[in-house]
Design brief:
The complex is a heterotrimer. By secondary structure, chain B is mainly alpha-helical. In chain B, 78% of the residues lie in helices and 3% in strands. Chain B has one domain. Chain B has helices at residues 2-31, 38-55, 60-88, 93-115, 139-161, 163-173, 175-180, 185-210, 217-232, 237-257, 260-278, and strands at 129-132, 135-138. The longest helix of chain B is centred in the N-terminal third of the chain and has 30 residues, at 2-31. Chain C is mainly α. Chain C has a domain at 2-210. A two-stranded antiparallel ribbon of chain C has the order 1-2. The chains are: A alpha/beta, B mainly alpha, C mainly alpha.
């Protein structure tokens, strides 16, 4: 499983926001991506999922069924191959309940055609089960209703991505907006899924202790390029990282 | 020669359209929605002219200014009474267009209920026919053209060279920043809606005197006004003027060459083409 | 009595159109301001096939509505992924093109002279207008029923998600563009069916029938009744068309000079109502309705489930 960016650049008004020569994501289990503000982390995430078009360069994804060139694809096609990203800013479906939102994400698109008008049950037992278990695991104010706070909406966003069974999950600042205990629950769940071989994960974060605790491999992004990468120990003790980021 | 004819006829016929397009664009630019009720600024301008010119007996040229001003006042009233409260309630752009259809119906059919569903005529000043570069035009048409050019020029100057114009562009481009820098959005908006209403009214006055005054005259041109605004691209007033002139000339040219109905179809098809390639993307 | 049947049949057509608009706008978020165009393609398509080529009525309707669907699909390909304002403008422009072409291509359509006569398909039978009305009733009832099934289905849920946040739905793997296109095309095709069914009602077709006032009447009815509710169309049309066009115009004792003004008064009220609704109760009279999902057998044993 590899997500590779080659010579990937994104320029905004002649200012280069991202410039990655060649970076393989997805081979190291649970990976982290850190860097100072404005380093281009979110832009990179957007480029990888094709929400933003690159100025130049290629992105390739191999989930085990061959190499897919991501450049010409639309964002739904990227998701169908197995690359899904959580949202940094809160996004949701206001008209759908928490469970409906998750059911939506869990339902394969091929089951959402016109023939679904005539199914007996809207959702299969399997999906109902999955959704119920996921929602029960977390302390929502109204499990059968709607997400109440910003934190709940953020959590639903992450759970949606999880239930969609991605092969490679990109998490864009998952801790922002979530209470610490919930973040732990989420990351424990994520770590378990990675360990079980269900998916690979790349987490973009500012919360360094969380990164050191959960990640097997860390990439350091600064001014649009990957300056260094390695295990948490190696990255923690690297001088360039310390200078540019941790303000030592 | 065909081209010159087209340009000339196009300009003459486009003069009211140019004014309407500019006013429509101002509102679109400032508030971000297409105000279909703008059609009634055009219609009411003509009816105000009837009031001064026919009912009160003033000379046509004297009736122009008060009619135009009343039209501007009506525009402000509609803004303050309906559109601003709606925007404050957070009504989205698509719903605002639907709302403006409602306002248009209210004004147009209210007008018919008040004055009756008959068509009226303005009392034209004396018509003299003039020759201009080998083509014929009436003095009235030339006056209209000149007024339009003056109005267009003034509007252009106002938008790009005065404080008010700057404020408007500031509000349109970045509302919060504009507010933070001390621009009074209330007054700026009222001024813009007033000017837009005047432009529409003037457009109606001349459309009315060239042909006749009917309650549907504004409604009949609102589609092409929308077309011109969208082709001009997200409410650039500069672009609106160019697009309106081009639309007028193009219509004239096509009409000279083929059936007038085809001119409409071709224009509308081009409209859809522009939307296809230029409309903002969703996903 | 015949006039009542005619009016009621017309009202049913309006309900059908408003129901389809509920699917397009209320559920999928597509603001179609060209309703009269798709209906008109069905109307005139049927008329031309029937009058000029002697095609039996129902086959003519089938062919004409396929044309409506195809045109809807084509337009969707062009503009459906643009902003709501662009879609609104494009659909409005399309219906104007259709209306204009019907006038200009008079060799085919009869132009302003009109096209006719299209008769009810039941020979000389007594009460054939009633039978036809029942046909329309069945079609419209089916539409309302299908619309509810759509609301309660997985596809309906996807549509709501697309309406709420299309980009997010796409990021989860939903081909939103394709879903919207197909829903739009099928509903436009059904508008064509209603147009075809309107041909024997009007009997004689004229281009004036394709004026945008039909589109606006349908919109006002739907917004009033509640664009997000499955029964919003029925309620809205009853309160507008039913109240004005049937009740008041037929039965209210209005003197002749005022009677001419009645249509204008109606439209004035429509404008007022539209303003009131959008400003104060955008959800309309009925508000929104939620999907009704059948309870699962397991829940009978007391395990918590959602209502």
């Amino acid at each position: 499983m590899r997500l590779e960016a080659q010579k990937l650049t994104k320029a905004c008004h002649a200012h280069e926001v991202v410039n990655i020569k060649k970076v393989p994501f997805g081979s190291g289990g649970l990976e982290g991506l850190i860097g100072p503000n404005g380093a281009g982390k979110s832009t990179l995430m957007g480029l990888l999922t094709r929400r933003i078009a690159p100025t130049s360069g290629d992105i390739q994804l191999d989930v085990g069924d061959g190499v897919h060139k991501l450049n010409p694809l639309k964002s739904y096609e990227v998701a169908r191959i197995g690359l899904i990203k959580t949202n940094q800013r809160i996004q949701g479906f206001d008209s759908l309940t928490i469970k409906d939102s998750l059911r939506l994400a869990a339902t394969p698109p091929k089951d959402e055609g016109f023939s679904s008008l005539f199914s007996k049950m809207r959702d299969s037992d399997e999906i109902e089960d999955k959704v119920a278990r996921l929602v029960e695991a977390f302390p929502f104010t109204d499990r059968n209703g709607y997400a109440m706070s910003g934190g709940e909406k953020k959590l639903v966003d992450i759970l949606r991505c999880l239930i969609a069974q991605p092969k490679l999950l990109l998490m864009d600042e998952p801790t922002a907006g979530l209470p610490d205990d919930i973040t732990r629950m989420v990351m424990d769940m994520v770590r378990q899924k990675v360990a079980d071989g269900e998916m690979r994960v790349v987490v973009v974060e500012h919360d360094l202790p969380m990164i050191w605790e959960y990640c097997d491999y860390v990439h350091f992004l600064s001014e649009g390029t990957i300056l260094f990468e390695g295990t948490p120990e190696e990255v923690k003790s690297n001088r360039v990282v310390a200078e540019k980021y941790m303000g030592v | 020669m065909l081209l010159l004819d087209s340009i000339f006829i196009g300009l003459l016929e486009a003069s009211p359209l140019i004014l309407a397009a500019m006013g429509f664009t101002l509102i679109f630019y400032l508030n971000g929605f297409m105000n279909i009720a703008y059609a009634e600024s055009i219609t009411f301008g003509a009816y105000f002219a009837i009031l001064f010119n026919v009912v009160l007996g003033a000379h046509f040229y004297l009736a122009i200014v008060p009619s135009m001003l009343l039209s501007g006042a009506l525009s402000v009233a509609v803004y303050l009474g309906i559109f601003r409260p709606a925007l404050n309630r957070g009504v989205g752009p698509t719903e605002m267009i639907i709302l403006s259809v409602g306002v248009s119906f209210l004004l147009r059919y209210g007008l018919i209920l008040a004055v009756g569903p008959v068509n009226m005529f303005l009392n034209e000043p004396n018509i003299t026919y003039l020759q201009f570069l080998g083509m014929g035009a009436t003095n009235l048409q030339l006056v209209a053209l000149v007024l339009v050019l003056i109005a267009a020029g003034t509007l252009y100057w106002m938008i790009y060279n005065t404080g008010l114009g700057e404020q408007m562009r500031g509000l349109a481009n970045n509302h919060d920043l504009a507010m933070a820098s001390g621009i009074n959005p209330h007054r700026t908006s009222v001024a813009i809606w007033f000017i837009a209403g005047c432009a529409g009214g003037l457009s109606g006055i001349f459309s009315g005197v060239f042909a006749q005054v009917t309650p549907y005259m504004g409604w009949n041109v609102i589609l092409i006004t929308m077309l011109v605004t969208i082709v001009a691209g997200v409410g650039s007033v500069r672009g609106a003027v160019v697009a309106a002139v081009a639309a007028g000339i193009l219509t004239a040219f096509i009409t000279l060459v083929t059936k007038p109905l085809y001119a409409e179809v071709i224009l509308l098809t081009m409209f859809i083409a522009v939307l296809t390639f230029r409309g903002a993307r969703t996903a | 009595m015949d006039y009542l049947i005619f009016s009621f049949s017309l009202m049913l057509v309006y309900i059908g159109l408003a129901q389809l608009l509920h699917i397009q706008f209320g559920m999928a978020g597509i603001p179609n301001f060209g309703v009269v165009g798709f209906w008109g393609l069905g109307l005139y398509g049927t008329g031309v096939l029937y009058v000029t080529y002697d095609v039996p009525l129902f086959i003519a309707i089938a062919i004409a509505s396929t044309l409506s669907a195809a045109v809807g699909y084509a337009l969707a390909l062009l503009v459906l992924q643009r902003s709501g304002q662009a879609v609104l403008a494009a659909t409005l422009a399309l219906s104007a093109i259709i209306a204009t072409l019907i006038v200009s291509e008079k060799d085919i359509t009869g132009g302003v002279q009109g096209l006719g006569t299209i008769k009810f398909p039941f020979g000389d039978m007594d009460g054939r207008n009633i039978v036809f009305m029942v046909f329309i009733l069945i079609i419209v009832a089916a539409l309302v029923w299908l619309s509810a099934k759509l609301r309660d289905s997985r596809m309906g849920r996807q549509l709501v998600a697309i309406r709420d946040n299309e980009e997010l739905a796409a990021s989860l793997g939903k081909d939103t563009a394709s879903t919207k296109r197909w829903v739009f095309a099928v509903t436009c095709g059904m508008m064509g069916v209603l147009g075809g069914m309107s041909a024997p009602l009007h009997q004689f077709l004229v281009p004036y029938q394709l004026a945008p006032s039909l589109t606006f009447a349908v919109w006002i009815a739907l917004v009033l009744g509640g664009k997000g509710h499955n029964l919003g169309a029925i309620v809205g049309v009853f309160v507008t068309f039913g109240l004005f066009d049937i009740l008041i115009e037929t039965y209210a004792p209005v003197p002749a000079e005022q009677a001419i003004l009645l249509p204008n008064f109606k439209l004035f009220c429509y404008g007022l109502v539209l303003i009131m609704i959008i400003m104060f109760r955008p959800r309309g009279m009925l508000g929104e309705d939620k999907p009704k999902v059948r309870a699962r057998p397991a829940e009978v044993e007391g395990v918590p489930h959602e209502t």
